[in-house]
Write a structure and sequence with these properties.
With 579 residues, the chain is of the alpha/beta class. Among the domains are: 1-152, ABC transporter type 1, transmembrane domain (ABC transporter transmembrane region fold), CATH 1.20.1560.10; 333-571, P-loop containing nucleotide triphosphate hydrolases (Rossmann fold, 3-Layer(aba) Sandwich). It is 64% helix and 10% strand. The chain is built from 19 helices and ten strands. The protein has a six-stranded mixed sheet, with helices on both faces. A four-stranded antiparallel sheet has the order 2-1-4-5, with helices on one face. The chain is elongated and about 120 Å long. 30% of the residues are buried. Bound molecules: adenosine-5'-diphosphate and magnesium ion. Residues 373-374, 495-496 line the site of magnesium ion (MG).
Length: 579
């Protein structure tokens, strides 16, 4: 896993090297200052050479200007490197997600994926940037100062460096607690957000049930938990900083006391004591860095682990090696002995289904809810893979066809229309991003939505709100139909396209759908049987499989389930034996 992490540095190796070199110089300059101070106090001032002092000062100023430049590079370009790596990872993750099967999304919460992409990767970027730099800087500073000091007075140095691990241990321990506390704060604020979102989107329900007080109580609970979590987080933050500062101050006192004693005994000089004090005061920086590193490593690596987890999920439905593109499609569809079950529950949804739809003809699927009609249709564009049997288009097994060309040739209109947040035009264009304006208008006219679009304040550029919230169900459906007109696939699936609409809207949309299915092989699912009467073949699917098939007249004559359902719809009641 670490090697995969490191592989993301490759593309940014230049920035990485620059970052490390600059970090090296920063550490080196910081190590120089106490030595120069010692020089000034012990040699330059006693010797009375004021010019040497000036030279020292000039050199120091130059060094600090350089240090500022290096610091800027590390702070800016280091973060740029981290952000770019995060960008690469996020792009890879999103690209990978797009390749995953529908099955994966059936079983994964959207919120889970969101937090993988947004939060986890943020932690990684911080680690990617600060990790190597922090370790490098801190070790140079600690090791460097140790080597310099040990040459001056080894006993005093050992005392100081016996303290350092204790402070680091304390800092990491407290920091872990602080980190945990802040993580819980994040979780709690997510809960508050979710509560607000839920309450506001259900505000009409809350009002109609006059449950405002209950809603407020629910909110109060989350809000209080958030407050408590924050109080705790600040407590651990205070413990951390107070503790570390206190230990460093004690160390200062020890150095002053012991060092002063050594000066008194003439073991070291005053300037050397000064160097000790200065170094100890520098320690705050590496200690802080190492502590943050410990925390970032933990957070970043957990995030990266989850990143790798998703990246390692392989899509099951992929192109075969010698898959062919589907060209000049006539549109003859055949289901041969098809059986299917959703993997997570063993119940067979479809078993031994045999169906043929001839080129340009319409097949209607009717039957009780849960019989597997939608499932059957989803097998055609390979959203799921058949367990047994095969499906062919123009006598080619769909498993031998590239997924891209297969899906390009199958159009789907569903009951739950999904529109993307954006404009009308963007949504229609989704059917074919290369379409011209004329083609878009033509598609809209065919879908009987052009006049409506023109009546909108900005015409085709009107913003339709989040997921098309500003449109009625019928309007949304017509836009989705225009989208399929623009895609212009030879094969069409209409899955209860009008079921959610009122009668009048349905009749209007029905006309657009008839125009759409003209000349295309169509599978239509509908529970209003008046709309499927004219299909070339009607298949009645129940939990037991296909129980009736034939055209309308034949099925009415047979007087089976279809005939019962049909009569019931005309009389206005539904018999019990639907299932
Ligand atoms: P219909 O469209 O005829 O109403 P479906 O094809 O939607 O029926 O569903 C058939 C059966 O498959 C139902 O029992 C349903 O619970 C199950 N099912 C549908 N979709 C999924 C899914 N994504 N994962 C697991 N089971 C599913
Ligand atoms: Mg269905």
């Amino acid at each position: 896993m670490l090697s995969k992490f490191i592989s993301y540095y490759k593309k940014h190796s230049k920035l990485f090297i620059i970052d490390i070199i600059c970090a090296f110089f920063i550490a080196a300059f910081d190590l120089v200052f106490p030595i120069m101070s010692r020089e000034v106090v012990d040699n330059v001032i006693p010797s009375g050479k004021i010019r040497t002092l000036y030279i020292f000062i000039v050199v120091l100023v130059i060094l600090y200007i350089l240090r500022a430049i290096f610091n800027y590079v590390v702070d800016y370009w280091g973060h740029v490197m981290g952000t770019r790596m995060e960008y690469d990872m996020r792009r890879d993750l999103f690209t990978h997600l797009q390749t995953l099967d529908v099955h994966y999304f059936d079983n994964t919460k959207t919120g889970y994926i969101m937090s993988r992409i947004v939060n986890d990767l943020r932690d990684i970027s911080e680690l990617a940037h600060h990790g190597p730099e922090d370790i490098f800087l801190s070790s140079i500073m600690l090791v460097g100062s140790f080597l310099i000091l040990i040459r001056i007075e080894w006993r005093l140095t050992l005392v100081i460096f016996a303290f350092v691990p204790i402070i680091i241990w304390f800092a990491i321990k407290k920091n872990r607690k602080m980190h945990k506390a802040f993580r819980s704060v994040r979780k709690k604020i997510a809960k508050v957000n979710a509560q607000v979102e839920n309450s506001i989107s259900g505000i009409r329900v809350a009002k109609s049930f006059t449950n405002e007080i209950y809603e407020r109580q629910k909110f109060d609970e989350g809000n209080r938990e958030f407050k408590n979590a924050r109080e705790f987080a600040f407590k651990s933050m205070a413990e951390f900083f107070t503790g570390v500062h206190f230990l460093l101050n004690i160390l200062n006192v020890v150095v002053l006391g012991l060092g002063g004693y050594f000066v008194y005994k003439n073991v070291i000089k005053v300037g050397e004591l000064l160097a000790y004090i200065l170094y100890v005061n520098f320690f705050m920086q590496p200690i802080r860095r190492l502590t943050f590193f410990a925390q970032q490593y933990q957070a970043g690596m957990t995030g990266f682990e989850r990143f790798c987890e998703i990246m390692s999920i392989k899509p099951r439905i992929v192109d075969k090696k010698d898959a062919v593109d589907l060209k000049d499609v006539k549109g003859r569809i055949e289901f041969k002995n098809v059986s299917f079950s959703y993997k997570d529950d063993k119940n067979t949804v479809l078993s031994n289904i045999n169906l043929t739809v001839e080129e340009g003809k319409t097949l209607a699927l009717v039957g009780p809810s849960g019989a597997g009609k939608t499932t059957l249709c989803h097998l055609l564009p390979r959203f799921y893979e058949v367990d047994e049997g095969e499906i062919t288009i123009d006598d080619i097994n769909i498993k031998d066809i590239t997924i891209k060309s297969l899906r390009k040739n199958v159009g789907l209109v569903q009951q739950d229309v999904f529109l993307f947040t954006g404009t009308v035009k963007e949504n229609i264009l989704y059917g074919n991003p290369n379409a011209t304006d004329e083609e878009i208008i033509e598609a809209a006219k065919n879908a009987d939505i052009h006049d409506f679009i023109m009546s909108l304040p900005n015409g085709y550029d009107t913003y339709i709100g989040e997921k098309g919230i500003k449109l009625s169900g019928g309007q949304k459906q017509r836009i989705s139909i225009a989208r399929v007109f623009l895609k212009n696939p030879p094969i069409l699936i209409l899955d209860e396209a009008t079921s959610a609409l009122d009668n009048e809207t349905e009749i209007k949309i029905q006309k657009a759908l008839e125009r759409l299915s003209k000349g295309r092989t169509t599978i239509v699912i509908a529970h209003r049987l008046s709309t499927v009467k004219n299909a070339d073949e009607i298949v009645v699917l129940s939990n037991k499989g296909i129980i009736e098939r034939g055209n309308h007249e034949k099925l009415i004559e047979e007087d089976g389930l279809y005939a019962k359902l049909y009569k019931a719809q005309f009389k206005g009641y539904i018999p019990d034996e639907i299932d």
